[in-house]
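### Sample
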Amino acid sequence: MATRVAAATLLPVLSLLLLLRAGTCADDYSAFVYAGCSQGRYDAASQYASGVDSVLTSVANSAPYAPYANFTAPSDSSLVGLYQCRSDLPASVCSGCVRSAINRLSSLCGWAAGGAVQLRACFVRYGNDSFLGKTDTAVLFKKCGGTPGDAGGVAMRDSALGALVAAAAPEGGGYRAGGSGAVQAMSQCVGDLSAKACSDCVTAATSQLKAGCGYATAGEVYLGKCYARFWANGGGGFSSSAVRHGFGRVFALVLKECNCA
């Protein structure tokens, strides 16, 4: 049977669906945030299928040892995969999160030429659309909520997010953290970005939160190659959400209501 592989470009052509469920998210590092799959498909017995298996196996094998890595399929230099864990978390958390992400890819993106899954503490992507090393500040998911705050809270939020932007380019995966008063913030870039591209992505993410979250006491935004979050210590859980366009197929986004890191 002839191999059918279309470009795996994850175009923002369909909206994603959001589902909320109550509870705390302490240590729930494998909680699902979003997923997207390309329209292009491949045959199960094709060389491309072998390449996808090889790339994702390498991803799983590498996760216990490093927070980021990328791999190229031995038989197809255009097919690449990568993963990125939150760089401040232990290797055991990274490994478990990546395994969960790969399982999600298998169930949600079976036979798709490209796919991506973002869990709470890690991101996995594969495809043949030349995404490696390229900047991507498209908004994939944004959520604001919590008990409404006041102007003082907004000032602390903006200061905490500003600390992320002002931070020197970090080593080992682009994780940044900041705080101001009762508000904490963090961000994470995908490791294929340069230091400047990471800083630019964090700037774009924090600008989205400042512009879109009003007096909310918690918020998070996921761009194509980075994300940022803020939360007020002791604040309420998310109570509202804004979901932007997704990758190319509709999936349920399940995120526990919380404001934790």
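Residues 6-26, 235-261 have pLDDT under 50 and may be disordered. This sample (Cysteine-rich repeat secretory protein 60) is used throughout the tutorial notebook.
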